[in-house]
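Quick start: what a row looks like.
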Amino acid sequence: MKIGLTFDARGGWDGEPATGAPRRGQRLAAGGQTVMLATDDAEEEFDAPATIEALAKVIRSLGHDVELLGNGETLMRRLLDGERPDLVFNIAEGRGVSRSREARTPAILEALGIPYTGSDPLSLAVSLDKDCAKRLVAQAGVATPRWTVVEGHAADILERVAGFQWPLVAKPAYEGSSKGIRATSLVRDERQLAATLREMLADYRQPILVEEYIEGDELTVGLVGNPPEVLGIMRIIPRSTDQPFIYSLEVKRDWEDVIRYECPAQIGATATRAVEQAAIAAWRALGCQDFARVDFRLRGETPYFLEANPLPGLNPVGGDIVFLANYVGVSHAELVRRVLNAALERIGA
């Protein structure tokens, strides 16, 4: 079978290796243009060439031919001008700040009648929009922290959070991979909230979601298959407990020193069942396919939905769903195989 691999590579559309993490103010080539990165996490979701090659290697080891397709205009040209693949393994995140950017590649593939791995355009769009995802998951009966969304200058923000329990968490509404979630995202008073919102609105050029901070365990749940099976529940445990913990970008970048992962999460049988049920309910509410990761905070035995990632990263030496899989005895190669097989079974191939 000929399988195409769609992706967004760090450093530009062509997948040329980047030299380290991108920096604020760094100029990068993207889609034939030179762009200025507004923040040092602008390409946090995109994959290093080593990750792309590792995925291609796994797929080839399963007996398939692999073509690297990229994303955007490059992808469209290759699909229109060349031989089309039988299936696309999609890890393309999309560039820019649109809430539907993750949906673009599957939408192109559907328009051309090419099957692909992972969730469809609607699921990717509603999951990336944290406000929309929360509405759908809450409607399905899953608890979620109280929240509001700030767009532009929010003169009434204090009125909207008047009944909220402090501290609060502020984060960009249309991002993944903890983009925009920093230590300063945990706000403890009105003055800090106003300053954080001003900075985030300027840096990320999109609405900002503000929600109550839930004291308790940070959990992430991996799911694979159709219908979904829980791969495992992983708990993120801070090494220091002298202040409220959020799973920020700084933490993820320095995880070996500041946190430890525990999987299976030792949270008790009742809480485990509640988290598994909530994760599957969120999956169904959002319409996920093949694989996904769902994040919660656990207060007592009640899981509070934070967000879902129906396009989780597959870096072979990093990424939460890969860490989680390794802890339960599933290698990176086996995880990729399961995702691919889930898609093939779903399309009847």
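That is the whole record. Confidence is low (pLDDT under 50) at residues 13-37. The two ends are 10 Å apart (CA to CA).
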